[in-house]
Amino acid sequence: MLSDIEIAKQAQMLKIGEIAGKLGISEDELEPYGHYKAKLSESVFKRVESQPDGKLILVTAINPTPAGEGKTTISVGLAESLNKIGKKTALALREPSLGPVFGIKGGAAGGGYAQVVPMEDINLHFTGDMHAITAANNLLCALIDNHMQQGNELRIDQRRILFKRCMDMNDRALRDIIIGLGSKANGIPREDGFQITVASEIMAILCLSSDLADLKKRLENILVAYNTEGEPVYAGQLGGCGAMTALLKDALKPNLVQTLENNPAFIHGGPFANIAHGCNSVRATKLALKLSDYTVTEAGFGSDLGAEKFMDIKCRMAGLKPSCVVLVATIRALKYNGGVPRAELTEENVEALEKGTVNLRTHIENMRKFGVPVVVAINRFHTDTEAEIEVIKRVCAEMGAEVSLAEIFAKGSEGGIDLANKVVSTIENCESNYAPLYDEKLPIKEKLDIIAREIYRADGVTYTSQAEKALAEIEKLGFGNIPVCVAKTQYSLSDDPTKLGKPEHFNITVRDMKVSSGAGFVVVYTGDILTMPGLPKKPAALNIDCDNEGSIYGLF
């Protein structure tokens, strides 16, 4: 059996100009990065501004195993299959982070015969967007420390600096550090730390900005610190936001690549869904909607994370209206939610599967709370048995949800024809009445209570003293009436990764909060979730290499 990278290397890619032509994009509107990838110029946005939008399809999932459940693979394959049945379709996905690429989970270019290519480029440096975001973030950090070193006119309190440095790599040693040690010339010693680039506010800002002017305004609105009188200090007061915008001006332009079957794919922005808002850029999604009849996008991890944030943050801010949700489920993940250890997930276990289907039922119910119809896609693995498949089909029938057995990983577009037809039929016959789950003007505690009860199925929310203090400060600054972005484990509906299936009789514990005032939401930290992951005992990086001709191997 061929690996993902071996399959990708066999792809017969078309020049990026030919791919662009399928969406009516001219070569003058492309900014090529080699033969097979390009950024899209501002002129294409202006040209299509008055065109009607196509239909928006969100791909999400149940609570996964640590290996992931193939959500990106289903997204890519669904787009392939929709094109196969004659529907003009574009993909709009996130860019991979180097953290999971060199860690454990893998990249974000799909898998098997449902991938976006050039796979190595997309999973590694791509067009440099991640580096630009990292540089802009760290420029702001350098400006903060330099301001204090050069007289501290804004009277920044070094103990209350909120904005952290970042890098796009898993490095637990950088979570909490001391900087400025040594002589006076080295700056003011203080506590600091790094978060991974995809969890940074700059990443969120890039993904939610509508244009360059909006980007600069959002950068200026970042709350970076408090001064010695307890007053807020914003990035705009420090200066340098123009320079940050200059670093990000090309990164703001969506990237165009192709699938294995030479269909167009926009890959742009990459926030994680467990510690950030988990959706690709608004700009890429909106452009795809203008240029195609159907746009397939995804939101990270389970629907309790990425999809809730897609609905309550991205769609609300961007004025998007999804027409259908595709909920990805795997038999192995449902058995995992039914209590089966990871080492035994390939063995048939109908009893555990039946127990774990409560997780699938809950995610179907949750997505319907946003007024959007749901189609379930079973991402089939070769170890799945007919008896197990029948259980899932029966559960979906009981829930009144269309279900399709997708063999996209092994068969590409041919393995997703049934799914594509059911998605189209659902869109044509079931009206979407999308609405956010809560009114953003509600107090923060009320918004959190709604999410906790309706999506996580908790009894309520408990706040630590630190969270109460942070909440009071956020509301005092006037940021109580914006959406909330919950940082939570992806493995459970609760904030405890060991509570699988559908946990009952629990409270979500909020340990801290911070306002991402530039992005436009409040980040709420629960459980032990960290914004700088660490590498596992055997990182994927140990398997990756490059030969003397420059060919990469071992990359999945």
Describe the structure.
With 556 residues, this protein is an alpha/beta fold. It is built from 20 helices and 25 strands. A hairpin with a 4-residue loop joins strand 12 and strand 13 (232-234). It is globular and about 70 Å long. The model has no long low-confidence stretch (mean pLDDT 95).
Can you give keywords for this protein?
556 residues; alpha/beta; twelve-stranded mixed β-sheet
Which band does the percent of strand residues land in?
15-25%
**Approximate shape:** globular
Largest sheet: 12 strands, mixed
**What oligomeric state do these chains adopt?**
single chain
What radius of gyration results from the CA coordinates?
23 Å
Percentage of residues assigned to helices: 25-40%
Enumerate how many helices there are, as a single number: 20
CA distance, first residue to last residue:
12 Å
The residue-averaged pLDDT reads 95
**Helices and strands: which structural class?**
alpha/beta
Total number of strands: 25
Stretches where pLDDT is under 50 for at least 5 consecutive residues are none
